[in-house]
Amino acid sequence: MFQSPFEESIFKRATDNNLVRLEIHNFRDFAHDKHHAVDDSPYGGGAGMLLKPEPLFEAVEDVLREDPTPAPVILLSPQGRSFNQEVARELAKHERLIIICGHYEGFDERVREHL
């Protein structure tokens, strides 16, 4: 589904040299409706679609159940900090990271508050 960008270039070399390990989890696996929907309209209306909190919460809980090693949860969003060398050095200090890629208009605010 999302693997191909990581099979090239710098990330591939890091993986081949056992410097990093990537595990991709599909939010849809944690949605409970018949269409496995992970998006919804913003509460109170407005344009666009947001990622619903429930599938994201369940996905993170599942990841932590598989390996309880503490890990910061990083939400990738245009509203966040810019990724630069300083941020890369800060994140590299952690044994593992949980990175959640935003989609559509971003995340339901409950995701930011609780993860």
Automatic annotation (TrEMBL):
UniProt keywords, alphabetically: Methyltransferase, Transferase
Any one of the GO BP annotations: tRNA N1-guanine methylation
SUPFAM superfamilies named in the record: alpha/beta knot
Domain tRNA methyltransferase TRMD/TRM10-type positions: 1-114
InterPro entries given in the database record: Alpha/beta_knot_MTases, tRNA_m1G_MeTrfase_TrmD, tRNA_m1G_MTases_N, tRNA_MeTrfase_TRMD/TRM10
Gene3D superfamilies: 3.40.1280.10
GO cellular component annotations of the record: cytosol
A Gene Ontology molecular function term of the record: tRNA (guanine(37)-N1)-methyltransferase activity
Pfam families: tRNA_m1G_MT (PF01746)
Protein name according to UniProt: tRNA (Guanosine(37)-N1)-methyltransferase TrmD
Originating organism: Dehalococcoides mccartyi
